[in-house]
Amino acid sequence: MGKKLNPTEDHMTDKKVQTVASLKDQISKAKSVVLADYRGLTHKQAEELHKVLKKVEGEFTVVKNTLLKIAAKQSGDERLSKNTVAGPVAALFAYADEFAPLRELVKFASALGGPAIKLAYINGIEYSADQAMTIAKLPSLDGLRSQFVYTLNANIQKLVYVLGVIKDAR
Q1: Quick check: bond before 7 cis, omega within 30?
Q2: Candidate from 27-31, 72-76, 147-151 with smallest mean pLDDT
């Protein structure tokens, strides 16, 4: 396994080594990682959340924070390796769109009262739970593009109308 990062690695079982390797792979592929408290979710709700997130290329995994920190350190993600989250944690990995899985998690949490976001790492920047919630409420990139095009089109239509009125007034 190479250089040991901390004393706990000396006592890692094969299963923990495999978990760290899997987490390292997930961290390396992810555009964003959101840490959340998963407590309170039933098995059925967790399965439903997994299905919803899979559609937007996200993955929600219950992890031991110690193993997550080791995997983050190994993958070169210093911020995630030094996260300050305490207690049970699940990690939401977003692979294609940094924000879509976060939006889905927030929608799901709003409907069910959980899971609660603790911390988010989007494009290498750390965001608090409140900041992550604010980001999740922003429109998608496609939604913003639609709004922009609609605004441009409306203003062009107004300009055409005004020019037509001016032309008719002559």
Answers
A1: no
A2: 147-151
